[in-house]
Specification:
The chain has 390 residues and is an alpha+beta fold. It has helices at 40-56, 61-72, 126-142, 153-160, 166-175, 195-202, 250-261, 293-296, 299-303, 306-316, 320-332, 336-343, 347-361, 368-385; strands spanning 76-80, 84-90, 93-95, 104-107, 113-116, 183-190, 211-215, 218-223, 238-241, 245-246, 281-283. Strands 6, 7, 8, 9, 10 and 11 form a six-stranded mixed sheet that branches. It has a five-stranded antiparallel sheet with strand order 3-2-1-5-4, covered by helices on one side. The model is unreliable at 1-28, 30-39 and 145-151 (pLDDT under 50).
Length: 390
């Protein structure tokens, strides 16, 4: 996935001017501080500080690469779809070229890689240098027009990836204009093409800071404020909403949004309200212990559950989808009359469906334990069906 080529509309932020080639004062080589007599912690801190200056001054990619090559005392490069291969510190200075066969490489989360081509093997701080080079290049690509880019997939991925360091995530948040304390809502969306774009528009669009990008089979949608309980969802789409929180909590919120999506069902009408039994918008904070199921239960585990196999038999019968929807309402309500009101059926029709389901399942659906057992079976069936979204 490559970084978007579109810039955020509006006036540029009041930031220092981009760092140019003449602004870079060549200090002593940091790589030279990695001899056995050096202090590794101090050398690493000095290296981090060098890249912090580049990021704070919005250094362009070519300046970042040139500074990295000076610090590493070897060629440094970037191979990125949006910019092409770039090299600094090679025999001819800065230029273009692919990744050398034996180079040390670190991938960018926006796509592409940065690399060092050091003859004679890696030095102790090369891993730190590559990490900082990757961060600086990610930010430089995203800000090369002088301000952050909305919907930037690389920066959004950094914000939700719990394997990256706090500083790396902080830089991504800063580039997106988000403070750690900014209240945010994160959603996992799946549906037909343009579904997520429709929800972005409903929630205010890029002009109000709503961002979205695809992460595998699921779209990530980030809104810099709480969202209403109900909002229009395109037909065929489903939404998992992460718990309320701040930008600093995005990795956890994204995991929980993905878990909530596993319980969601495709929307059948474009306008709210969406009752809970329709499962169009599922909020993570309402799942309770059910949220553990997608994490702990595998498809093989579910295949061994007799109740799920029998629910599959009911789903395969004529009118099976209506049967399953009715059973969800029955499991969630203490009386058949209330369940009938939820699914807009006469209570005698619901009673007939319940009688058929009891015949197949082999237990009473009108008492508390039976309804709880039914709900567990239905939720296991649902998360098995949504496994590709996990």
């Amino acid at each position: 996935m490559t970084l978007s080529a579109r810039d955020r509309a509006g006036p540029a932020a009041d930031v220092p001017p981009p760092l140019s080639e003449d602004d870079v004062t060549p200090p002593a080589s940091v790589s030279g501080a990695t001899t056995p007599s050096s202090v590794p912690g101090a050398a690493a801190a000095a290296l981090v500080a060098e890249f912090d200056v580049l990021i704070e001054n919005q250094a362009p990619v070519d300046v970042v690469l040139r500074r990295a090559a000076e610090l590493a005392e070897c060629p440094a490069g970037l191979d990125h779809d949006g910019l092409g291969p770039l090299v600094a510190g090679g025999p001819a200075g800065a230029g273009h070229g692919g990744v050398p066969p034996v180079a040390a490489v670190r991938p960018l989360r926006s796509g592409g890689v940065v690399w060092l081509d050091r003859p004679g093997g890696a030095r102790p701080l090369d891993a730190v240098l590559l990490e900082r080079l990757a961060i600086a290049c990610t930010v430089a690509i995203a800000t090369r027009a002088g301000h952050p880019r909305l919907g930037d997939p690389g920066l959004l991925q950094l914000c939700v990836d719990d394997t990256v360091g706090d500083l790396e995530r902080s830089r991504a948040l800063d580039a997106l204009g988000l403070a750690h304390s900014t209240p945010v809502t994160i959603m996992a969306v799946h549906g037909p093409p343009r579904s997520t774009a429709g929800i972005v528009a409903v929630l205010g669009g890029p002009a109000r800071g709503v961002r979205a990008t695809a992460l595998g089979p699921v779209d990530l949608l980030l809104c810099p404020r709480p969202v209403p309980d109900q909002f229009p969802v395109p037909v065929g789409a489903r939404v998992g909403v992460g718990p309320p929180g701040t930008a600093a909590e995005l990795p956890r919120a994204w995991r929980e949004a993905r878990a909530a999506l596993r319980f969601a069902l495709p929307c059948r009408h474009p306008l709210p309200p969406y009752p809970e039994d329709e499962g169009v918008i599922v909020r993570a904070e309402l799942l309770g212990g059910y949220a553990l199921l997608p994490r702990l239960v595998t498809g093989a585990d579910i295949a061994d559950v007799d109740d799920v196999r029998r629910l599959d038999e009911l789903a395969a019968e004529p009118g099976g989808a209506d049967m399953i929807r009715t059973l969800v309402a029955v499991a969630a309500n203490e009386s058949l009359r209330k369940a009938a009101a939820v699914v807009h059926l006469h209570h005698t029709s619901v009673a007939q469906k319940v009688a058929r389901a009891e015949q197949v399942l082999g237990f009473d659906l009108t008492e508390g334990y039976g309804r709880s057992r039914l709900m567990v079976g239905l939720m296991l069936q649902r998360i098995r069906g949504s496994a590709p979204l996990g």
